Request: fold
Amino acid sequence: MRIANVSRRSVLLGMGAGSLVLAVGLPPRAQEPEEPVKFGADAMPNGWQDDPNVFISIAPDGIVTVTVHRSEMGQGVRTSIAMVVADELDAEWEQVRVTQAPGDEPRYGNQDTDGSRSLRHFFQPMRRAGAAARTMLEEAAAQQWGVPVEEVRAANHQVTHEASGRTLGYGELAAAAAELAVPDREGLRLKNPAEFRYVGKDSIGLVDNMDITTGHTTYGIDVRLDGMLYAVIARPPVFGGRVASLDDSAALEVPGVERVITIDPPTVPTAFQPLGGVAVVARNTWAAMKGREALKIEWEDGEHGTYSSDSFRAQLEEAVSTADGKLVLNRGDVDEAMAGASERVVAEYYIPHLAQAPMEPPAAVVDVRDGSAEAWACVQAPQVTRLRLAERLGIPEDKVTVNVTLLGGGFGRKSKPDFVLEAAILSQAMGAPVKVTWTREDDLHHGFYHTVSVERMEAGLDEAGKPVAWLHRTAAPTIGSIFAPDPKEKLPFELGMGLTNMPLDIPNVRAENPQAPAHVRIGWYRSVSNIPHAFAIQSFVAELAHAAGRDPRDYLLEVIGPERLIDPSEIGDVWNYGENPERYPIDTGRLRRVTETVADAIGWGRQMPEGSGLGLAAHYSFVTHVAVAAEVEVTDGTVRVPRVEIAVDCGAHVNPDRIRSQMEGAVIMGVGQALTSQITFQDGRAQQDNFDTYLIPRMETAPRQINVHLVSSGGYDQPMGGVGEPGLPPVTPAIVNAIFAATGKRIRSLPVGDQLRS
Amino acid sequence: MISLSVNGEDRQFDGDPDMPLLWYLRDELGLTGTKFGCGIAQCGACVVHMDDYPTFACVTPMAVAEGTQVKTIEGLSPDGNHPVQVAWRDLNVSQCGYCQAGQIMQAAALVDSTPDLTDEDIDTVMTANLCRCGTYPRIRAAIQQAAQAGGK
Reply:
């Protein structure tokens, strides 16, 4: 068996010959590996580190500073990693501070803050770092007292020699401890989880709480340097477009405008290069914006100037209407089973482009001088940013510093450092630090969009209404299109997000991936391809239940099937989120339990008032099992979602409060995807400009009641699942299934919009 | 010359009177707690108090700010302990935190000006402020807690 372990990074870095294997989709088992296959953090670029000297410093006053190397974008990682370290270190939380690591993966290990991986990959290394530091403090105390180390014990920020009653605080021991060798990893004493004071508890507030509530945080957009200039950029309105002519005379007359600089268009594939265009550099943001308005630019649109969502949808629908697509999954004999079925059901689903739209738009400051560059940026992948800056500026990587600010939301957008490169180009030109700020219009017009999909589902049911044949055709532009010239099929990691690892208990299953070209930049968006796959599959299961005349809950549980552990590599998935499929099987028992939990919680089966309904969906993603039950009320065609129950089984918990908050946020984002959010294109131009047309949930449209159920299974020695993303995929199908229960109308095209208005 | 008070300090501005208060606060005064999110009064990340009223700084030209008393998140309370701020921390409302200054300024004005605050009041007023992380249920709970604790 070979598992092609595709991290997001190895896709993006690896467009050389080796990894192109993945992009063109050669059979994954065609080559036998020469080295043992790596999984998890081991397989990520630059792997992991657990050296306490890298992550922990202790000052003479006892203040412990934990260096967090993962980007904070709202998932709470700065707090959660510090909790892990502090717990093993036996530090007092009040004396723990957090500092943010710059981009430096050889030092810190992998820093790609994506894929719901931070604690999944760094819980154990951070435990070891804390435990090693604790051991070093104990050794330093024992040496000072001249007693065997076995006689001393660290606890509560001090080391005690019980026999003599002596104690020394961590601050008093820090200097001596720092001189000691780091103890062997193998001999470390990790805490018994029963002794955890912080991990798994709800007692810890966010480390940034005070700064956030008093306005003293620093995001990328907030960085200010002496002599800094401010820039906004007019980018081609169509992807692949370029400046045909420019008249900047009026712009240069705007008070405060310093210079107008043309940035070259990117080469293809564009990856994370800036889109090019015309930058206005000024003494403040407002002057730059006014200067940009005064630019007279004629654009040459290029080949994507005809991209329109309506016609592209028709193209995708055409693509899924034939059996010509690439075969990506084939178990049993679908054709024969379909032919012998008592009933066949077909449904087609449409999921539009979406924009991550983090509340902080992309923004960065870069200072290029004397053959070096220093950046301050809200980036999810600081090491990638560093590499790209070095490449673009033509300077060695060790001359590039990337300081990671707080991220005002990320959702995948800030995995792409194009905006940092823009600031670097302008700083180099100006000989001064430059801040580039994207407006909201820039963000929505020039994004790395979530793909657009048509998913065609067909099933054959036996006489009892149980599916015996399942055919799934998915057509959607691939993220691979930004890294290779014009690929039209999904990458294995995209297929592995709910399609090739589809665990439902159906004997004959086939999946096909007809071609779909990309006309805009396609990028990661929280939970990525799980969005269309889960929407289609979980909607379709409910449609089959209806066709079979069965209760949707009972039917879903029946289709999930009996409790079993599924090795994803044995059902057709070559990725499994980069994790060892034996250690991280799909567990249908867990999927059943989360489903039963939310169904029970919402009172499944109760009599609903006219216009109200309940819906259910379950989905495995990011090696975590999640189910959602939604209650909707439909009045005059307007949908409200008053209540959502969400259950998550992500293994053991580090920071339960942040698991809950991630689930709450996922529910609300999913409500937007169900009801209102979409990016559409006409003549290659995004038609949504700002939050008046790109509609995301607000206080009055968000569910009043969201109850999160942490269905824990497995101890701290068991693999952890992801948290940031897996909450999202089942939300939208649960809502749409509830709409069907409420109205009898099946929504197959997102968002619901005004489809229910007569 | 435009004169105004920001967090109790008198300020003069002689630049473009069309410049939105937001950019004056952020770029000229370095008060970056007030955030940019949309520029068209659709997201509320820029909400400050102008003469005690919650105001979208992104669409308020400096000419309009003349003679007003502006309060930003940095000046909401001397020690960061307005009941809304305390409730925000108690309930770990924030996720990324970016929109929260605007949320807090909006909520503080609501709590300070509304006796017997209802859920409908929260819906009506707080709908002006977007949060992409989805902290709304906790914002609601924090406002309720702050209202119990008593506003200004």
In short: Chain B has two domains: 2-75, 83-149.
